[in-house]
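Is this the right way to post structure tokens for a design question? Let me know if I should format differently. Anyway, here goes:
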């Protein structure tokens, strides 16, 4: 089974959290699900450097104040991932460009569980709704 190391950004915009919706995928179980944006860590990159690059590539946003949040290991039917999540901030969301996602939402932490999340992101949602004061 293929394994990927990825980074994910839990981006705070004022008192809300940025959630993005995936597009169609060859795997139905992740198609159109919500996730925290991010992507694969390339050879020689730290999780933080990969995350800054991925957020710029996918959303045209510059993130700052990265702080480690949690690492999750998850096995899907066809692949597995180790996902390192970081909380961070963005100053100007108005310049966002969805280059790989269908839509985005800015939600308060208590509303996160209302979305249909990719399975690997659910532990982050659970921890955010229980432990973090936004």
């Amino acid at each position: 089974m293929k394994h990927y190391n990825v980074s994910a950004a839990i981006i705070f915009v004022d008192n809300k959290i940025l959630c993005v919706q995936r597009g169609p995928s060859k795997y139905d179980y992740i198609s159109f699900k919500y996730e925290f944006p991010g992507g694969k860590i390339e050879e020689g990159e730290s999780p933080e450097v990969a995350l800054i690059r991925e957020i710029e590539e996918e959303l045209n946003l510059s993130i700052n104040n990265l702080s480690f949040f949690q690492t999750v290991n998850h096995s899907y039917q066809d692949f597995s991932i180790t996902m390192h999540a970081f909380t961070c901030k963005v100053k100007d969301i108005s310049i966002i460009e969805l280059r790989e996602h269908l839509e985005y939402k800015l939600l308060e932490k208590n509303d996160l569980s209302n979305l249909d999340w990719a399975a690997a992101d659910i532990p982050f949602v659970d921890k955010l709704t229980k432990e973090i004061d936004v």
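Format looks fine. Someone answered above. Worth noting: The first strand starts at residue 2 and ends at 13. Helices lie at 47-59, 122-131.
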